[in-house]
Amino acid sequence: MTRHFLRDDDLTGAEQLEILDLAEKLKTDRFQTTPLAGPQTVAVIFDKSSTRTRVSFAVGIADLGGIPLIISTANSQLGGKETAADTARVLERQVAAIVWRTYAQSGLQEMALGTTVPVINALSDDFHPCQLLADLLTIREHRGELKGLTITFLGDGRSNMAQSYVLACATAGIHIRIASPAEYAPDPAVVQDADAIAAKTGGSVTLFTDPLEAVAGVDVVVTDTWVSMGKEEEKAERLRSFGQYQVNADLMALAKADALFLHCLPADRGFEVTAEVIDGPQSVIWDEAENRLHAQKALLVWLLR
Ligand code: CP
Ligand code: NVA
């Protein structure tokens, strides 16, 4: 049966670990395996802007012996003109996998249902699971074991990053805390799914509105833009709502002394995080950005096995 990666909990804890282990191996020797030799092509489709995802998938697919076919929805038939299901049936006869950055999660589900090749979510409004594989890889590199760590994500709890943190951390047996205004809390259905997973892995999900309480003594502090792609019209209101969730030196001082700081990037310095923190000694953002490459290569190798 074809496996897809549409949300973080499409992988079990054991499968997530397997991919992280493989990513670690691929990082030590980038060209050790070429499962896409042929070369086979992987379609990488963008409905939204991207730097890291575009580069890391293009480079990663090439490292694996394949050819990346980067498609902008703006100049394709997808996006209003043709359905995701029909697009999938055209692509599957020519490509080894489909990677798609889009808006609605339902589009990815439609794409996956309609095809026999793996579909990978390269960010939707609801989840950013590829980023989480890179983030977990980064945290593991700096902290050793993931299980039992406590991580706080601050800002837009309903965002793709926050909701992926909820699911991926529950899967890894991590205690995940989300600090956001009540009206930007994660989708209750996502929290419910994560709670069920955490009950088996030993992790937990806790929602906070108080940012200070949420970061007290934690191992890792994470944030992301307050204005995700597609939310630009709400910018003024969002800047007002999220002000007290800024990650600055005073906030970092409440976490463990050696706490890590992560941000998926791009960052709005001076808003969700101060330059002092993101460019400071606790920040591991450049490792995190590099690890997109290794994590996604491992994911592709695993899905194509
Ligand atoms: N973090 C991330 O996905 O970055 P891009 O939007 O540049 O791909
Ligand atoms: N939450 C951000 C992530 C960008 C990589 C967005 O969706 O714009």
Describe the structure in your own words.
It is a single chain. The protein has 305 residues and is α/β, with parallel strands linked by helices. It is built from twelve helices and nine strands. Strands 7-6-5-8-9 form a five-stranded parallel sheet. The protein has a four-stranded parallel sheet with strand order 2-1-3-4, sandwiched between helices. Strand 5 (150-154), helix 6 and strand 6 form a beta-alpha-beta unit. Bound molecules: phosphoric acid mono(formamide)ester (CP) and norvaline. Norvaline binds at residues 123, 159-161, 224-225, 228-229, 264.
Largest β-sheet summary: 5 strands, parallel
**Bound small molecules, deduplicated:** phosphoric acid mono(formamide)ester, norvaline
The unreliable regions are none
**Element pattern in H and E:** HEHEHEHEHEHEHEHEHHEHH
Please tell me what the overall shape is: globular
Number of helices: 12
Strand order of the largest sheet: 7-6-5-8-9
Report the span from N to C terminus: 11 Å
- The fraction of residues assigned to DSSP E strands is 5-15%
Arithmetic mean of pLDDT: 97
Radius of gyration: 19 Å
The number of strands is: 9
Query: What percentage of residues falls in helices of 4 or more residues?
Result: 40-55%
Structural class: alpha/beta
Short summary of the structure?
This protein is of the alpha/beta class and 305 residues long. The chain has helices at 13-28, 52-63, 84-91, 105-113, 129-143, 160-172, 188-201, 211-215, 235-242, 249-252, 275-278, 285-304; strands at residues 41-46, 67-72, 97-101, 119-121, 150-154, 175-179, 204-208, 220-223, 260-263.
